[in-house]
Amino acid sequence: MIILGVDPGYAIVGFGLVEYKNTRFMTLDYGAITTPPGIPMEQRLQMIYNDLCTVLQQYKPDAMSIEKLFFNNNQKTAIAVSQARGVILLAAVQHGVACYEYTPLQVKQSVVGYGQAVKSQVMEMTKRLLNLSKIPKPDDTADALAMAICHAHTAGSRMNIQNLGRSRL
């Protein structure tokens, strides 16, 4: 299964692609889509959409894992990130990619095994699980790879439960 993890934003969108097969990970690609400050929001959204479509066309992932948003005190930022998240979801759906949402707590639990883990612990475990020589930069990229790992662990559990149910029939 090829999984695209996405850390949504409007200035930086982190993405990470992993293949998960037989409980093993292989990192396919990772990086960040960046948009310059000072240009109209609709142009930034178009850049995010176009660049993500390129990634989707190149790798043809089976699933996309994206962070479930929670609203903090800065409503202006939350609205802008929500708009970016919308074009990200649109791109995935238009390319036939199933989308899955996870909270930061779920990602921490899945990657580190502890829902109250700090960011540095998640990044270090992401590096180890993917056998990377260093933690990817910017942080949004490492976060996106953690999102992909979370989905692999969660989807694997779902598949195992489904297979157990089938074997009883």
Structural features, described:
The structure is a single chain. With 169 residues, this protein is of the alpha/beta class. The protein is 51% helix and 22% strand. It has 5 helices and 5 strands. It has helices at residues 41-59, 75-94, 104-111, 119-129, 139-167; strands at residues 2-7, 12-21, 24-34, 63-67, 98-102. Strands 3-2-1-4-5 form a 5-stranded mixed beta sheet. α3 crosses α5. The chain is globular. The two termini are 26 Å apart. Residues 159-169 have low confidence and may be disordered.
Keywords:
169 residues, five-stranded mixed β-sheet, 5 helices, 51% helix, 22% strand, disordered C terminus
List the helices and strands and how they pair.
Elements lengths: L1 E6 L4 E10 L2 E11 L6 H19 L3 E5 L7 H20 L3 E5 L1 H8 L7 H11 L9 H29 L2
Parallel strand pairs: 1-4, 4-5
Antiparallel strand pairs: 1-2, 2-3
The helix/strand order is: EEEHEHEHHH
The separation of the N and C termini measures 26 Å
Helix percentage range: 40-55%
- Assembly type of the chains comes to single chain
Give the biggest sheet.
Answer: 5 strands, mixed
**What would the principal axes of the Cα set say about the shape?**
globular
Computed over alpha carbons, the radius of gyration is 16 Å
Query: Given the structure, what is the number of helices?
Result: 5
As residue ranges, the low-confidence spans are 159-169
